Every structure is written in structure tokens, then in C-alpha cells.
Amino acid sequence: MIRQWLGARQWLLLSLGLSSLTQVVAAGITIDIDNTDSIKSAASTVAYDLVTFYTGNNSGDVPGNLPDPYYWWEAGAFFGTLINYWAFTGDTTYNKITVQAMEHQAGSEGDFMPSNQTYTEGNDDQSFWALSAMMAAERNFTNPSSSSPGWLAMVQAVFNEQAHRWDSANCDGGLRWQIYTWNAGYGYKNTISNGCFFDIAARLARYTGNATYAEWANKAWNWSKNTGLITADYQVYDGTTVDSNCSSYDRTRWTYTAGIYLHGAAVMYNYTSSLSSNSSSNSSTVWKNRIDGLLTSANHFYSTDNSSANVMEEPPCESSGSCDTDQLSFKAYLSRWLADVMQLAPYTYDTIIAKVRATATAAVSQCQGGDSGTFCGHQWSSGSYDGTTGVGQQMGVLEVLHGLLATDISGPVTANTGGTSEGNSAAGTGSDETESEILYSAITTADRAGAAILTVIIAGMIFAAVYVMLV
Ligand SMILES: *[C@@H]1O[C@H](CO)[C@@H](O)[C@H](O)[C@H]1NC(C)=O
Ligand SMILES: *[C@@H]1O[C@H](CO)[C@@H](O)[C@H](O)[C@H]1NC(C)=O
Ligand SMILES: *[C@@H]1O[C@H](CO)[C@@H](O)[C@H](O)[C@H]1NC(C)=O
Ligand SMILES: *[C@@H]1O[C@H](CO)[C@@H](O)[C@H](O)[C@H]1NC(C)=O
Ligand SMILES: *[C@@H]1O[C@H](CO)[C@@H](O)[C@H](O)[C@H]1NC(C)=O
Ligand SMILES: *[C@@H]1O[C@H](CO)[C@@H](O)[C@H](O)[C@H]1NC(C)=O
Ligand SMILES: *[C@@H]1O[C@H](CO)[C@@H](O)[C@H](O)[C@H]1NC(C)=O
Ligand SMILES: *[C@@H]1O[C@H](CO)[C@@H](O)[C@H](O)[C@H]1NC(C)=O
Ligand SMILES: *[C@@H]1O[C@H](CO)[C@@H](O)[C@H](O)[C@H]1NC(C)=O
Ligand SMILES: *[C@@H]1O[C@H](CO)[C@@H](O)[C@H](O)[C@H]1NC(C)=O
């Protein structure tokens, strides 16, 4: 406390009088959204507050983990936001902790299935880390150390593993939410897992130029559409059950599920525009129509009140204040992907930037919480700070600010336009199986009863070993 009072800034403020001191404290973050320096300065404050939640670089802690209540997947998203922060502002402050964390959590096989996480890991969890690695490749972020696979190779490993998990035996395809039978949600094909796979395939196609990835992107889009997870008017549902042969849905519409398909469609639009010929299922016109449909349908996620028109909301839970920790972060991803869409499909710029500007203004104005008086809440359109703080809230506002800078930096690169990330198209397919692949094949070759028996046998062996030791 005393040291704080002796700070130069405080002395200056005191000399300006008590009234200006209170004014500064109450003002939170101020921003001129037409001024790049002002946007960057606001972003720097939001990023600083965001990183206060991270403990993984403390000695004794594990690089890449966020403390409770944040799940592992959200940490993956967190480092993506820090990569974007560097890409859009040029501030390198957090690059070191980001490279360290992502290398560590990529695990021994470089596929974001580190041994501490595999048992409960879902396809979407793995994907959120892969998406951050893809951002690193596309933004030409600092490459990992030479002993580690490149960012691109990590994404390719995740792609190959998920393509291998594509479940043609049920509902004509699609990914299940969970990787392993023992996790709740194994019987659910959730849209975000399939949307992430679609997006990863599209981005690999664009980055590498390898058409096999584009074929998978088409396949994943087709399946999502044909299964009814994307409706005729481009509403994007939460998911569907395997038991119903994918005919019964959870129709909840989240910002990020709509956002991931919009992003993937923009990547495919950009990729197909660069090809030398158009086939009927593979033309930029097809993808442009999809972008336009998804963009129109995304109006659902914006306030229509006059006082907060065009401000992004999370309709299922925001106004009631019932969003859980995961859900508090979803607007960050739609915001992140919109910034990319403006770069990948520049014809969307005018439509999107109007919403980004309204959202950024409202979002920043409510960043008045926490010890610093600059932490952000979640209810941007309400016009006042909602009293909450968290990683999701900080990431959300930061990603919106990046959108304001979409024309200040060049778009995502490819291997042909300056990308330097090292790839390996065979990553994740090797005969040198990872622990997870061994588990996976054990479960798919045995039936579920077989897996249960296996568990009983292993438990029995452990019991016997302990018994022998004790005797
Ligand atoms: C961890 O990283 C943050 C952000 O760079 C920094 O503020 C903090 O001092 C670091 N902590 C340690 C123990 O290195
Ligand atoms: C796994 O967890 C243990 C215990 O928290 C930790 O010491 C270790 O570093 C972690 N390993 C990885 C790869 O994160
Ligand atoms: C399940 O649905 C797919 C289409 O999604 C259909 O091709 C298949 O015949 C259905 N299977 C059963 C058993 O109804
Ligand atoms: C799209 O068209 C290009 C150029 O004709 C072709 O090389 C590529 O294989 C096609 N991709 C898909 C997914 O059909
Ligand atoms: C996707 O569906 C279109 C028709 O809607 C078809 O022409 C195309 O071959 C399908 N692509 C894949 C990879 O399934
Ligand atoms: C592919 O189709 C789009 C839309 O019709 C067009 O703008 C583009 O020039 C076409 N590309 C080629 C190589 O013909
Ligand atoms: C909202 O704005 C519209 C158009 O500016 C106006 O016609 C309408 O009366 C306004 N509604 C309220 C409740 O202020
Ligand atoms: C594809 O993306 C690049 C990079 O952002 C952009 O410069 C280009 O205009 C995009 N292509 C199309 C057809 O919009
Ligand atoms: C990518 O990063 C490398 C290494 O930092 C640098 O040499 C290169 O100029 C960068 N390329 C672009 C397009 O920024
Ligand atoms: C393209 O990607 C596929 C799928 O991972 C891979 O099997 C193939 O070897 C790749 N082709 C090239 C030329 O890298």
C-alpha cells in the first residue's frame, strides 16, 4: 500500500488534485476506437490483466496450465489469444511464456495429447490447442525450439488423429465429442468438435496447398449440413446424439459454434479463390454463399436494443448471468474468428467492422473491475460492469480489440507467402504409437464389454501386486 502511494504516477496525480485521482480510478479503460495507438494501449491493459490469471510460469507449476476453475482446453485458447495479441499489436511481452507453454502441452508426441490430460481429453479440447498452433503458423509466430516439431506439424498430427477417429459406423460419419468410451459425452456428436476439425482441415489446405485437406474440409462441412447441425438458414446447433442416429438435437446456439464454421468457410473461400479451376463443389462461389448465410444468421448474437445495437451477446446464458466458466469465453472465439474473416474475405469488412466497433466500444467501457479497476466483465451490452472477472471475460474484450486492427496488419500467411513453420504430413500416423493411440485401438478392437473386462483384469492385477507386497 505504502509503496503504491509513493509511486511516481500517484505523486503526479496527487499534485493534480484529489478529484482527478478519483476520476482516473473510476474511468477504467478509455479508448478512441479510431486511433491505433489508443486501441493498442487499451489492448495492452486488457492483456496484462488477462495474464495475471496465469500461474504456469511460476516455479513448481506446470507450463501451459491455468489454475482452477479453468479447464485445460481454455488454456489452449488463452495462448491463442496471446499469439493474436502479439500479431495485432507487435507487443512481444508474452511470447516467451506462450512458446514455453505450447511446447510443453504439445506433449512427447507433439499432438496435444500430453499424458496428464489424455484420460479425460475430448476432440474439441485437443482442437483448441491445435487452433492456437495453427495461428502460430499463420501469423509466423516465433517457432518452437529445434528439438520440438513445428507448429504446423503439431496441427497435422491432430488432424491425422482426428481423421482416423472419423466415425463412419454411426450417422454416416462425424466425430464424437469424446475420444474414449469411458468419458460422459462419448455418445454425443457435438458441433464444436466437428467444426474445429472442419476448420483445421480448411486451414491446412490453405497453408500447405495439399488438396487432401480440402477434401476433408468438404466432407466435414457436408456431414455437418446433411446431419442437420447446420440448418438450411445457417443456424448452428450444439450437437446430436448417436443413439438417435443423429436425428435428435440439442438446438442451443452458441457464438463459437457459429463462429468456427464461419471461419472455416472464409478459409475455404480464400483457398478456392486461389485455385486455377472451379468445380461445382469446390468453387469460391459456393463458399461465399456459405459465408453470407452464416454471417446473416450470426445477427442472432447481437443486441437489438437501441442503446446497445450491434453489441455481441451470448444469448443462452448472458442476460441471466448463468454462463459457466467455459461459456464465459465463447464470445472471445467468435470475435477472434471475425477478425480473421475480415482478412480472408475482405468483402465482408464493412458488414463485420460495424459490429466490431459497436461491440468494442461497449465491451471496453465496462472494464472497471478487479484490483486495478480495469478488469472486464461479461455483459457488454448492459452498459455497466457486471462484477465478474475471469480469463473468458479478458480474452473476449482483447479479441474484440484485435478486430479493430484487422486492416492494420496483413492477413494469415501460407507456406508460399512467408510462413516458416515446419510441417510433417505424416505426424500422428506413425507405427510408433502414442499411449493414447494404444488406448484407442484397445478400445476399438475390443467391444465395450471387452474394455470393461480389461479394466477388471487390470484392477485385479494391481490388487494382487499390492497383496503380494503387503504379504
Ligand atoms: C510469468 O510471466 C508473466 C508475464 O510475462 C510475468 O509478469 C511474471 O513475472 C512471470 N513470472 C515468473 C515467475 O517468471
Ligand atoms: C503432469 O503433472 C505433474 C504433476 O502435476 C507435473 O509434475 C508434470 O510436469 C506434468 N507433465 C506435463 C507434461 O505437463
Ligand atoms: C442413419 O442415418 C443415416 C443418414 O444420416 C442413414 O444413411 C442411415 O441409413 C441411418 N441408419 C439407420 C439405422 O437408421
Ligand atoms: C478443388 O479444385 C482443385 C483444382 O481443380 C483440385 O486440385 C482440388 O483437388 C479440388 N479440391 C476438392 C476438395 O475437390
Ligand atoms: C460434398 O457435397 C457435395 C454436394 O452437396 C458433393 O458434390 C461433394 O462431392 C461432397 N464432397 C465430399 C468431399 O464429400
Ligand atoms: C471461380 O469462380 C469465382 C466465382 O464465380 C470467380 O470469381 C473466379 O474467378 C473463378 N476462378 C477461376 C480460376 O475461374
Ligand atoms: C429505436 O430506434 C429506432 C430507429 O432509430 C426508432 O424508430 C425507435 O423508436 C427506437 N426505439 C426506442 C424504444 O427507442
Ligand atoms: C485471401 O486472404 C488474403 C490474406 O488476408 C487476402 O489478401 C486476399 O485478398 C484473400 N482473397 C480473397 C479472394 O478475398
Ligand atoms: C517470418 O519469421 C521469420 C523468422 O522470424 C522471418 O525471418 C521472416 O521474415 C518472417 N516472414 C514474414 C512474412 O514476416
Ligand atoms: C497431403 O496430405 C495427406 C493427408 O495427410 C498426406 O497423406 C499426403 O502425403 C500429403 N501430400 C503431400 C504432397 O504432402
Summary, kept brief:
The chain crosses the membrane at residues 449-470. Helix content is 53%, strand content 2%. By secondary structure, the protein is mostly helical.
Task: Describe, in plain words, how this protein is organized in 3D.
Its EC number is 3.2.1.101. Keywords: Glycoprotein, Glycosidase, Hydrolase, Membrane, Signal, Transmembrane, Transmembrane helix. GO terms for molecular function: mannan endo-1,6-alpha-mannosidase activity. Its main location: membrane. It is found in: Endomembrane system. This protein is an all-alpha fold. The chain has two domains: 42-430, Glycosyltransferase; 434-471. Helices cover 53% and strands 2% of the residues. It has a three-stranded antiparallel sheet. The protein is globular. It starts with a helix and ends with a helix. The structure holds 2-acetamido-2-deoxy-beta-D-glucopyranose (10 copies). One 2-acetamido-2-deoxy-beta-D-glucopyranose binds at residues 215, 218-219, 222, 281. One 2-acetamido-2-deoxy-beta-D-glucopyranose binds at residues 171-172, 227, 245-246.
- The low-pLDDT segments are 1-25, 444-463
Shape: globular
What is the helix content?
A: 40-55%
Please indicate the count of domains: 2
Termini distance? 60 Å
CATH class of the largest domain: Mainly Alpha
Number of strands: 3
Bound chemical compounds = 2-acetamido-2-deoxy-beta-D-glucopyranose
For this structure, the CATH topology of the largest domain is Glycosyltransferase
Q: Output the structural class.
A: mainly alpha
- The chain-level mean pLDDT equals 89
Side-by-side strand order of the widest sheet: 1-2-3
The CATH architecture of the largest domain is: Alpha/alpha barrel
Quaternary organisation = single chain
Proportion in β-strands: under 5%
Q: What letter string, H or E per element, gives the SSE order?
A: HHHHHHHHEHHEEHHHHHHH
If helices are DSSP runs of H or I spanning 4 or more residues, what is the number of helices?
17
Largest sheet: 3 strands, antiparallel
As a whole number of angstroms, the C-alpha radius of gyration is 23 Å
